[in-house]
Design a protein that fits this description.
Blueprint: H1 3-22, H2 25-80, H3 84-158, H4 161-219, H5 223-226, H6 233-256
Helix pairs in contact: 2-3
């Protein structure tokens, strides 16, 4: 293998790779439809030109056949008049037009076949363009979906999903711990409140018990203690009078000083 062949192959491979990468399905589809429509316009022009040529040949063939028939009638007329030379000349003219008409008839048959072929090609191309337009919309939608999916996969691939999920799980655990602490604080607060009420309730029980004991002691005293007579005023009266006399004496002594 020659050096230039290898270089040529490398260049062509690189060019093909660049072209493949540069091809955008949506743009290529649109351009393909435009190219097909241009071909359709050219084919329609070719069909129209072939039909026009066919009609022109048909007219020429009809005209040549008409002239051949006319010279046939003239030859018969000249022969009826006894002019064989004129009749022979008329037959020569008829032969020329007849050959022309025959040649045109052969050409016309060929043109009819060409026109039919062009018409079938035109119908087939129109059908292909219609089908291509339908597929184009479908392929464009599929290409757009594939491109969007590829972009999404790239975004997902570039995301640090593991670390993000780890952080999410840590925050979830932290929220659970906060809820647990909050619940514990609420339970402790409720327990403290209940203990205070329990103390109050126990204190009232002690007071009630103390009052009951006092009532029991008072209710259980002896009859002698209940019926003891109070000290008579007559017995304490002399003691009080003597004390008063002593106080008076002291006052007098103080006044005399």
């Amino acid at each position: 293998m020659g050096l230039f062949d290898r270089i040529s192959r490398v260049v062509r491979s690189n060019v093909n790779d660049m072209v493949s990468k540069a091809e955008d399905p949506e743009k290529i589809l649109e351009q393909s439809i435009l190219d097909m429509q241009e071909d359709l316009v050219q084919l329609r022009q070719a069909v129209a030109s072939a039909i026009a040529s066919q009609k022109r040949t048909q007219q020429q063939q009809n005209q040549a056949q008409t002239e051949s028939n006319n010279w046939q009638q003239r030859a018969q007329l000249a022969l009826q008049k006894g002019d064989e030379n004129l009749a022979r000349e008329a037959l020569l003219r008829r032969k020329t037009y007849n050959e022309t008409a025959t040649s045109l008839k052969t050409q016309l048959d060929q043109q009819n076949g060409q026109v039919d072929t062009l018409k079938r090609s035109l119908i087939g191309l129109e059908s292909k363009i219609s089908e291509a337009k339908t597929k184009k919309d479908m392929l464009k939608a599929r290409a757009a979906a594939a491109k969007a999916n590829e972009q999404l996969q790239n975004v997902v691939g570039n995301m640090s999903t593991g670390s993000a999920m780890g952080a999410f799980e840590r925050m979830e655990e932290k929220v659970l711990q906060m809820e647990a602490r909050s619940q514990a604080v609420a339970e402790l607060a409720g327990a403290n409140l209940e203990s205070q009420f329990a103390q109050l309730e126990s204190g009232s029980d002690v007071d009630d018990e103390l009052a009951a004991m006092k009532a029991q002691l008072i209710g259980g005293a002896s009859p002698e203690q209940k019926t003891l007579p109070a000290s008579s005023p007559s017995a304490s009266a002399p003691k009080d009078a003597a004390v008063d006399a002593e106080l008076e004496d002291l006052k007098k002594q103080l006044d005399s000083l």
